[in-house]
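About this split. The held-out portion is used to measure sequence recovery: a designer receives only the structure tokens and must propose an amino acid at every position. Recovery is the fraction of positions where the proposal matches the reference. Here is one held-out target exactly as it appears in the evaluation file.
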């Protein structure tokens, strides 16, 4: 029987309080409340399309800015992914996906490499400064992926190939990342042991 790939992590600072539980072998069920509605929407999309169960309770100093709560939640999500992946025996390791949302199109490639790295291209300067839903700055999208990749030990490449509506662009990115991660975390029936010539990831 396969060991459950789950993790529960809490993190409290003077800026935020995060409680997060993840199950990499779930059904895509999400129960998310970060006090940042658009972020809840994106993390729910991540859970659904990566077929990962995700429960998050996050609060923070959003009266100052949503940045701290968004960043700290991404940090904890990355830590939970890393912990839940464990030794990574028998996984596919690599995943890639392209996802459209109406006029927007994003591509993501994920490697559960143990080496944190993000390449993120294609968002416009106007997107970076746009307030999506009146509270979530477009520049936070890159920062979320940067924080997840760093703390999960993932190599992630995300490219925005086209798009006009900021909501669509962000959501296409999250869905592409989710679909790529779904493949990368899945088990390969032909793989014996850890998928690396080094013997460790």
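Reference sequence for scoring:
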């Amino acid at each position: 029987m396969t060991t459950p790939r789950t993790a529960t992590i809490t993190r409290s600072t003077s800026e935020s309080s995060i409680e997060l539980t993840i199950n990499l072998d779930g059904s895509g069920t999400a129960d998310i409340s970060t006090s940042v509605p658009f972020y809840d929407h994106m993390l729910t999309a991540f859970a659904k399309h990566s077929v990962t169960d995700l429960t998050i309770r996050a609060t923070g100093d959003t009266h100052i800015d949503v940045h701290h709560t968004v960043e700290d939640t991404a940090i904890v999500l990355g830590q939970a992914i890393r912990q839940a992946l464990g030794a990574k025996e028998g996984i596919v390791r690599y995943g890639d996906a392209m996802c459209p949302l109406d006029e927007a199109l994003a591509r993501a490639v994920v490697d559960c490499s143990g080496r944190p790295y993000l390449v993120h291209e294609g968002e416009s300067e106007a997107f970076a400064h746009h307030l999506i839903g009146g509270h979530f700055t477009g520049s936070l999208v890159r920062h979320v992926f940067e924080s997840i990749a760093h703390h999960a030990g993932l190599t992630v490449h995300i490219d925005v190939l086209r798009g006009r509506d900021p909501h669509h662009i962000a959501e296409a990115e999250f869905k592409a990342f989710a679909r790529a991660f779904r493949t990368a975390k899945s088990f390969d029936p032909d793989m014996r042991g850890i998928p690396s010539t080094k013997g460790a990831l």
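Annotator remark: The beta strands are 6-12, 16-23, 30-33, 53-60, 94-101, 104-111, 117-121, 131-132, 136-137, 155-162.
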